[in-house]
Design a protein that fits this description.
Elements: E1 9-14, H1 15-26, E2 30-33, H2 40-49, E3 56-59, H3 63-75, E4 80-84, H4 86-101, E5 106-112, H5 131-134, E6 143-145, H6 150-167, E7 170-176, H7 177-181, E8 183-188, H8 211-215, H9 249-264, H10 267-270, E9 273-276, E10 282-286, H11 290-303, E11 308-313, E12 315-317, H12 321-330, E13 333-337, H13 345-352, E14 357-361, H14 372-382
Parallel strand pairs: 2-3, 2-4, 4-5, 5-7, 6-7, 10-11, 10-13, 13-14
Antiparallel strand pairs: 1-8, 6-12, 9-11
Helix pairs in contact: 1-2, 1-6, 3-4, 11-14, 12-13
Protein backbone atom coordinates (compact mmCIF):
# COMPACT_ATOMS: atom_id res chain seq x y z
CA UNK A 1 0.00 0.00 0.00
CA UNK A 2 2.98 2.29 0.48
CA UNK A 3 2.51 5.76 1.86
CA UNK A 4 -0.26 7.00 -0.40
CA UNK A 5 -2.63 9.18 1.60
CA UNK A 6 -5.33 8.78 -1.05
CA UNK A 7 -6.08 5.43 -2.66
CA UNK A 8 -7.32 6.64 -6.02
CA UNK A 9 -9.04 4.43 -8.56
CA UNK A 10 -11.73 1.77 -8.44
CA UNK A 11 -12.20 -0.38 -5.34
CA UNK A 12 -14.58 -2.94 -3.84
CA UNK A 13 -14.75 -1.69 -0.29
CA UNK A 14 -16.61 -1.90 3.00
CA UNK A 15 -18.46 1.25 4.04
CA UNK A 16 -16.48 1.66 7.26
CA UNK A 17 -13.21 1.36 5.34
CA UNK A 18 -14.45 3.90 2.79
CA UNK A 19 -15.19 6.27 5.66
CA UNK A 20 -11.60 5.97 6.90
CA UNK A 21 -10.24 6.48 3.39
CA UNK A 22 -12.44 9.55 2.95
CA UNK A 23 -10.98 10.99 6.15
CA UNK A 24 -7.44 10.44 4.88
CA UNK A 25 -8.31 12.00 1.53
CA UNK A 26 -9.68 15.05 3.35
CA UNK A 27 -6.40 15.53 5.20
CA UNK A 28 -7.22 13.89 8.53
CA UNK A 29 -3.99 13.15 10.37
CA UNK A 30 -5.29 12.40 13.86
CA UNK A 31 -7.96 10.01 15.11
CA UNK A 32 -8.81 8.70 18.55
CA UNK A 33 -11.36 6.08 19.38
CA UNK A 34 -12.51 3.12 21.38
CA UNK A 35 -13.66 -0.16 19.80
CA UNK A 36 -17.42 -0.54 19.39
CA UNK A 37 -19.56 -2.59 17.03
CA UNK A 38 -20.46 -1.73 14.27
CA UNK A 39 -17.91 1.10 13.93
CA UNK A 40 -14.67 -0.66 14.86
CA UNK A 41 -13.46 -1.13 11.28
CA UNK A 42 -13.17 2.66 10.88
CA UNK A 43 -10.70 2.74 13.77
CA UNK A 44 -8.88 -0.37 12.58
CA UNK A 45 -8.31 1.11 9.13
CA UNK A 46 -7.17 4.44 10.53
CA UNK A 47 -4.85 2.69 13.00
CA UNK A 48 -3.27 0.90 10.04
CA UNK A 49 -3.12 3.79 7.60
CA UNK A 50 -2.50 6.96 9.60
CA UNK A 51 1.06 6.11 10.69
CA UNK A 52 2.03 5.44 7.06
CA UNK A 53 1.15 9.02 6.07
CA UNK A 54 2.62 10.83 9.07
CA UNK A 55 -0.55 10.76 11.16
CA UNK A 56 -1.47 9.42 14.57
CA UNK A 57 -4.14 7.05 15.82
CA UNK A 58 -4.76 6.63 19.54
CA UNK A 59 -6.94 3.96 21.08
CA UNK A 60 -8.18 5.66 24.22
CA UNK A 61 -9.49 4.18 27.45
CA UNK A 62 -13.07 5.16 26.59
CA UNK A 63 -15.20 7.38 24.37
CA UNK A 64 -14.99 10.37 26.70
CA UNK A 65 -11.21 10.42 26.42
CA UNK A 66 -11.47 9.87 22.66
CA UNK A 67 -13.45 13.03 21.92
CA UNK A 68 -11.28 14.99 24.38
CA UNK A 69 -8.17 13.90 22.48
CA UNK A 70 -9.80 14.89 19.18
CA UNK A 71 -10.61 18.38 20.49
CA UNK A 72 -7.04 18.81 21.75
CA UNK A 73 -5.56 17.62 18.47
CA UNK A 74 -7.72 20.06 16.53
CA UNK A 75 -6.44 22.97 18.62
CA UNK A 76 -2.95 21.65 17.91
CA UNK A 77 -3.59 22.26 14.22
CA UNK A 78 -4.63 18.77 13.07
CA UNK A 79 -7.70 17.70 11.13
CA UNK A 80 -9.12 15.22 13.62
CA UNK A 81 -11.95 12.70 13.95
CA UNK A 82 -13.45 9.88 15.96
CA UNK A 83 -15.82 7.04 15.05
CA UNK A 84 -18.23 5.29 17.37
CA UNK A 85 -21.84 4.14 17.70
CA UNK A 86 -24.83 5.33 19.73
CA UNK A 87 -23.65 4.43 23.25
CA UNK A 88 -20.31 6.09 22.50
CA UNK A 89 -22.01 9.27 21.27
CA UNK A 90 -23.99 9.39 24.52
CA UNK A 91 -20.73 9.39 26.45
CA UNK A 92 -19.16 11.99 24.18
CA UNK A 93 -21.95 14.54 24.32
CA UNK A 94 -20.50 16.78 27.02
CA UNK A 95 -17.25 17.20 25.11
CA UNK A 96 -19.15 17.57 21.84
CA UNK A 97 -20.90 20.50 23.48
CA UNK A 98 -17.47 21.80 24.50
CA UNK A 99 -16.34 21.55 20.87
CA UNK A 100 -19.43 23.45 19.75
CA UNK A 101 -18.91 26.23 22.30
CA UNK A 102 -15.21 26.58 21.54
CA UNK A 103 -15.77 26.41 17.76
CA UNK A 104 -13.51 23.42 17.33
CA UNK A 105 -13.53 21.77 13.89
CA UNK A 106 -13.70 17.97 14.04
CA UNK A 107 -15.62 15.06 12.53
CA UNK A 108 -17.69 12.58 14.53
CA UNK A 109 -18.82 9.40 12.78
CA UNK A 110 -21.78 7.51 14.26
CA UNK A 111 -22.27 4.06 12.74
CA UNK A 112 -25.76 3.69 14.18
CA UNK A 113 -26.99 0.50 15.80
CA UNK A 114 -30.05 -0.64 17.74
CA UNK A 115 -30.76 1.11 21.03
CA UNK A 116 -31.50 2.68 23.50
CA UNK A 117 -28.81 1.93 26.10
CA UNK A 118 -26.40 -0.81 25.02
CA UNK A 119 -29.06 -2.11 22.66
CA UNK A 120 -28.05 -4.60 20.02
CA UNK A 121 -24.66 -4.06 18.37
CA UNK A 122 -25.13 -5.96 15.11
CA UNK A 123 -28.54 -4.58 14.07
CA UNK A 124 -28.98 -1.27 12.25
CA UNK A 125 -31.42 1.36 13.46
CA UNK A 126 -31.79 4.99 12.43
CA UNK A 127 -32.36 5.72 16.09
CA UNK A 128 -29.74 8.42 16.65
CA UNK A 129 -30.75 11.00 14.07
CA UNK A 130 -32.23 13.49 16.54
CA UNK A 131 -29.38 13.04 19.03
CA UNK A 132 -26.84 15.22 17.15
CA UNK A 133 -29.37 18.05 16.91
CA UNK A 134 -30.49 18.13 20.54
CA UNK A 135 -28.19 15.75 22.41
CA UNK A 136 -26.11 18.44 24.06
CA UNK A 137 -27.64 21.01 26.38
CA UNK A 138 -28.13 24.63 25.35
CA UNK A 139 -29.11 26.23 22.06
CA UNK A 140 -26.91 25.57 19.04
CA UNK A 141 -26.78 24.45 15.42
CA UNK A 142 -25.10 21.30 14.17
CA UNK A 143 -24.25 19.80 10.79
CA UNK A 144 -25.01 16.13 10.16
CA UNK A 145 -24.65 14.24 6.87
CA UNK A 146 -26.38 10.93 6.10
CA UNK A 147 -24.78 8.86 3.30
CA UNK A 148 -26.77 6.12 1.57
CA UNK A 149 -24.01 4.15 -0.19
CA UNK A 150 -20.37 3.22 0.17
CA UNK A 151 -19.51 5.88 -2.41
CA UNK A 152 -21.38 8.52 -0.46
CA UNK A 153 -19.75 7.36 2.77
CA UNK A 154 -16.39 8.28 1.24
CA UNK A 155 -17.68 11.49 -0.37
CA UNK A 156 -19.62 12.68 2.67
CA UNK A 157 -16.69 12.05 5.00
CA UNK A 158 -14.56 14.31 2.80
CA UNK A 159 -17.35 16.88 2.82
CA UNK A 160 -17.72 16.61 6.61
CA UNK A 161 -14.10 17.66 7.06
CA UNK A 162 -14.57 20.51 4.60
CA UNK A 163 -17.65 21.78 6.45
CA UNK A 164 -15.94 21.42 9.82
CA UNK A 165 -13.03 23.55 8.65
CA UNK A 166 -15.14 26.09 6.80
CA UNK A 167 -17.50 26.75 9.72
CA UNK A 168 -15.29 25.81 12.69
CA UNK A 169 -17.72 23.30 14.13
CA UNK A 170 -18.08 19.59 14.85
CA UNK A 171 -19.74 17.75 11.94
CA UNK A 172 -21.48 14.38 12.20
CA UNK A 173 -21.49 11.61 9.62
CA UNK A 174 -24.50 9.40 10.37
CA UNK A 175 -24.01 6.04 8.76
CA UNK A 176 -25.32 2.70 10.12
CA UNK A 177 -24.61 -1.00 10.52
CA UNK A 178 -25.92 -1.81 7.02
CA UNK A 179 -23.73 0.75 5.27
CA UNK A 180 -20.78 0.26 7.57
CA UNK A 181 -20.52 -3.46 6.78
CA UNK A 182 -21.77 -3.36 3.19
CA UNK A 183 -19.28 -3.81 0.36
CA UNK A 184 -19.80 -1.92 -2.89
CA UNK A 185 -17.88 -0.28 -5.67
CA UNK A 186 -16.02 2.87 -4.67
CA UNK A 187 -14.44 5.16 -7.22
CA UNK A 188 -11.92 7.62 -5.83
CA UNK A 189 -10.94 10.40 -8.25
CA UNK A 190 -7.46 11.73 -8.70
CA UNK A 191 -6.21 13.83 -5.81
CA UNK A 192 -6.50 17.10 -7.72
CA UNK A 193 -10.21 16.40 -8.29
CA UNK A 194 -11.06 15.92 -4.61
CA UNK A 195 -12.25 19.25 -3.20
CA UNK A 196 -10.39 20.02 0.02
CA UNK A 197 -10.92 22.93 2.41
CA UNK A 198 -7.92 23.72 4.56
CA UNK A 199 -8.12 25.45 7.90
CA UNK A 200 -8.06 29.22 7.91
CA UNK A 201 -5.48 30.07 10.56
CA UNK A 202 -5.03 33.35 12.34
CA UNK A 203 -1.79 34.78 10.90
CA UNK A 204 0.94 34.36 13.54
CA UNK A 205 2.70 37.53 12.36
CA UNK A 206 -0.34 39.79 12.87
CA UNK A 207 -0.31 42.23 15.77
CA UNK A 208 -2.99 41.85 18.42
CA UNK A 209 -4.37 45.25 17.38
CA UNK A 210 -5.54 43.66 14.13
CA UNK A 211 -7.70 41.09 15.96
CA UNK A 212 -11.07 42.90 15.65
CA UNK A 213 -10.83 42.91 11.85
CA UNK A 214 -10.68 39.12 11.95
CA UNK A 215 -12.96 38.36 14.88
CA UNK A 216 -15.94 40.35 13.63
CA UNK A 217 -16.48 37.87 10.80
CA UNK A 218 -19.08 35.08 10.86
CA UNK A 219 -16.36 32.46 11.14
CA UNK A 220 -13.13 33.74 12.62
CA UNK A 221 -9.76 32.26 11.68
CA UNK A 222 -8.43 29.80 14.25
CA UNK A 223 -5.28 30.21 16.31
CA UNK A 224 -3.13 27.13 16.83
CA UNK A 225 -1.33 26.34 20.05
CA UNK A 226 2.38 26.98 19.74
CA UNK A 227 2.14 29.02 16.56
CA UNK A 228 2.14 32.71 17.31
CA UNK A 229 -0.58 34.22 19.49
CA UNK A 230 -1.61 32.84 22.84
CA UNK A 231 -5.18 31.56 22.92
CA UNK A 232 -7.67 31.24 25.76
CA UNK A 233 -10.04 28.35 25.07
CA UNK A 234 -13.07 28.22 27.37
CA UNK A 235 -16.48 26.66 27.01
CA UNK A 236 -17.95 29.22 29.37
CA UNK A 237 -19.75 32.16 27.80
CA UNK A 238 -17.00 34.31 26.33
CA UNK A 239 -16.39 37.21 24.00
CA UNK A 240 -14.58 37.12 20.66
CA UNK A 241 -11.22 37.21 22.46
CA UNK A 242 -12.03 34.16 24.59
CA UNK A 243 -12.51 36.23 27.76
CA UNK A 244 -15.12 34.72 30.11
CA UNK A 245 -18.31 36.59 30.87
CA UNK A 246 -20.69 34.48 32.94
CA UNK A 247 -22.87 37.19 34.49
CA UNK A 248 -24.19 39.23 31.55
CA UNK A 249 -27.26 38.10 29.59
CA UNK A 250 -26.20 40.27 26.65
CA UNK A 251 -22.91 38.39 26.47
CA UNK A 252 -24.82 35.10 26.48
CA UNK A 253 -27.09 36.37 23.71
CA UNK A 254 -24.07 37.26 21.58
CA UNK A 255 -22.36 33.94 22.34
CA UNK A 256 -25.36 31.83 21.33
CA UNK A 257 -26.25 33.88 18.27
CA UNK A 258 -22.70 33.65 16.99
CA UNK A 259 -22.77 29.85 17.16
CA UNK A 260 -26.17 29.69 15.50
CA UNK A 261 -25.81 32.38 12.89
CA UNK A 262 -22.64 31.05 11.28
CA UNK A 263 -24.67 27.95 10.33
CA UNK A 264 -28.03 29.61 9.67
CA UNK A 265 -26.57 32.27 7.39
CA UNK A 266 -24.97 29.59 5.25
CA UNK A 267 -27.65 26.87 5.44
CA UNK A 268 -28.26 27.00 1.68
CA UNK A 269 -24.59 26.17 1.09
CA UNK A 270 -24.74 23.31 3.60
CA UNK A 271 -28.07 21.58 2.96
CA UNK A 272 -27.94 18.72 0.45
CA UNK A 273 -30.95 16.98 -1.04
CA UNK A 274 -31.49 14.81 -4.11
CA UNK A 275 -34.87 14.82 -5.79
CA UNK A 276 -36.30 12.47 -8.40
CA UNK A 277 -39.85 13.73 -8.07
CA UNK A 278 -40.56 15.68 -11.26
CA UNK A 279 -44.29 15.32 -11.97
CA UNK A 280 -44.76 12.83 -9.12
CA UNK A 281 -48.01 12.87 -7.17
CA UNK A 282 -46.60 10.69 -4.37
CA UNK A 283 -43.04 11.15 -3.10
CA UNK A 284 -41.05 8.87 -0.80
CA UNK A 285 -38.91 10.91 1.58
CA UNK A 286 -35.95 9.04 3.08
CA UNK A 287 -32.28 9.18 4.01
CA UNK A 288 -29.35 6.88 4.67
CA UNK A 289 -29.65 3.17 3.96
CA UNK A 290 -33.45 3.36 3.73
CA UNK A 291 -33.11 5.52 0.61
CA UNK A 292 -32.06 2.36 -1.21
CA UNK A 293 -35.49 0.87 -0.47
CA UNK A 294 -37.16 4.04 -1.70
CA UNK A 295 -35.18 3.90 -4.94
CA UNK A 296 -36.18 0.31 -5.58
CA UNK A 297 -39.82 1.05 -4.77
CA UNK A 298 -39.92 4.03 -7.13
CA UNK A 299 -38.53 1.94 -9.95
CA UNK A 300 -41.05 -0.85 -9.33
CA UNK A 301 -43.94 1.58 -8.86
CA UNK A 302 -43.26 3.50 -12.04
CA UNK A 303 -43.19 0.21 -13.93
CA UNK A 304 -46.75 -0.31 -12.67
CA UNK A 305 -47.80 3.19 -13.69
CA UNK A 306 -47.76 4.77 -10.24
CA UNK A 307 -46.98 8.52 -10.18
CA UNK A 308 -44.13 7.96 -7.73
CA UNK A 309 -40.96 9.89 -6.94
CA UNK A 310 -38.21 10.02 -4.33
CA UNK A 311 -36.61 12.74 -2.22
CA UNK A 312 -33.38 12.06 -0.35
CA UNK A 313 -32.12 14.05 2.62
CA UNK A 314 -28.35 14.13 2.31
CA UNK A 315 -28.09 16.47 5.29
CA UNK A 316 -30.33 15.88 8.27
CA UNK A 317 -29.05 19.01 10.04
CA UNK A 318 -29.57 21.78 9.19
CA UNK A 319 -32.94 20.35 8.25
CA UNK A 320 -34.11 20.85 4.67
CA UNK A 321 -37.36 22.55 5.72
CA UNK A 322 -37.49 24.96 2.78
CA UNK A 323 -36.84 22.18 0.30
CA UNK A 324 -39.55 20.02 1.89
CA UNK A 325 -41.98 22.96 1.79
CA UNK A 326 -41.29 23.44 -1.93
CA UNK A 327 -41.73 19.71 -2.51
CA UNK A 328 -45.08 19.78 -0.69
CA UNK A 329 -46.26 22.50 -3.07
CA UNK A 330 -45.74 20.14 -6.02
CA UNK A 331 -46.70 16.72 -4.63
CA UNK A 332 -50.00 15.70 -3.03
CA UNK A 333 -48.63 12.97 -0.77
CA UNK A 334 -45.34 12.53 1.07
CA UNK A 335 -44.52 9.16 2.64
CA UNK A 336 -41.60 9.26 5.06
CA UNK A 337 -39.58 6.05 5.28
CA UNK A 338 -37.39 5.54 8.35
CA UNK A 339 -35.91 2.65 10.28
CA UNK A 340 -37.23 3.95 13.59
CA UNK A 341 -40.58 4.99 15.05
CA UNK A 342 -40.67 8.29 13.17
CA UNK A 343 -37.96 10.73 14.21
CA UNK A 344 -37.52 12.83 11.07
CA UNK A 345 -41.18 12.28 10.11
CA UNK A 346 -42.32 15.01 12.49
CA UNK A 347 -39.90 17.51 10.98
CA UNK A 348 -41.14 16.68 7.47
CA UNK A 349 -44.73 17.02 8.62
CA UNK A 350 -44.02 20.41 10.17
CA UNK A 351 -42.18 21.67 7.07
CA UNK A 352 -44.99 20.53 4.75
CA UNK A 353 -47.39 22.59 6.89
CA UNK A 354 -50.52 21.05 5.38
CA UNK A 355 -49.51 21.68 1.77
CA UNK A 356 -49.35 17.93 1.22
CA UNK A 357 -50.58 14.92 3.16
CA UNK A 358 -47.65 13.42 5.12
CA UNK A 359 -47.63 9.83 6.37
CA UNK A 360 -45.04 7.54 7.92
CA UNK A 361 -43.92 4.00 7.15
CA UNK A 362 -41.54 1.97 9.29
CA UNK A 363 -40.26 -1.49 8.32
CA UNK A 364 -42.14 -4.61 9.41
CA UNK A 365 -39.42 -5.25 11.97
CA UNK A 366 -37.29 -2.45 13.35
CA UNK A 367 -33.69 -3.09 12.40
CA UNK A 368 -34.59 -4.60 9.02
CA UNK A 369 -34.95 -2.76 5.73
CA UNK A 370 -38.36 -1.99 4.25
CA UNK A 371 -39.94 -4.59 1.98
CA UNK A 372 -40.67 -3.13 -1.45
CA UNK A 373 -44.15 -4.65 -1.46
CA UNK A 374 -44.93 -2.89 1.82
CA UNK A 375 -43.88 0.46 0.39
CA UNK A 376 -46.00 -0.02 -2.74
CA UNK A 377 -48.94 -1.12 -0.60
CA UNK A 378 -48.64 2.11 1.41
CA UNK A 379 -48.44 4.11 -1.84
CA UNK A 380 -51.67 2.54 -3.11
CA UNK A 381 -53.42 3.08 0.22
CA UNK A 382 -52.49 6.73 0.55
CA UNK A 383 -54.58 7.78 -2.45
CA UNK A 384 -58.33 8.13 -1.74
Amino acid sequence: MGKRAVLTGRHFMMGNVACAEGALAAGCRFAAGYPITPATEVAERLAERLPTVGGTFLQMEDEIASIAAVVGASWGGMKAMTATSGPGISLMLENIGFALGTETPCVIVNVMRGGPTTGIPAVELQGDVIQPRRGSHGDYQIIALAPSSVQETFDYTVEAFNLAERYRTPVFVLTDAFLGHMREELIVPEVAQIPIVDRRLFPPDKDVETLPAFLDEDVAPMPVFGRGHKAHVTSSCHDAYGRRNVIDAKALDLFIRKLNDKIEKHRDEIVRVASDAEGAEIVLVSYGSVFRCAQAAVEAGRADGLPLGSFKLGTLWPFADREIAALAERARYLIVLENNLGQIFHYVQAAAAGRAHVSFLRPRVLGELHEIEDILKAVREVRP
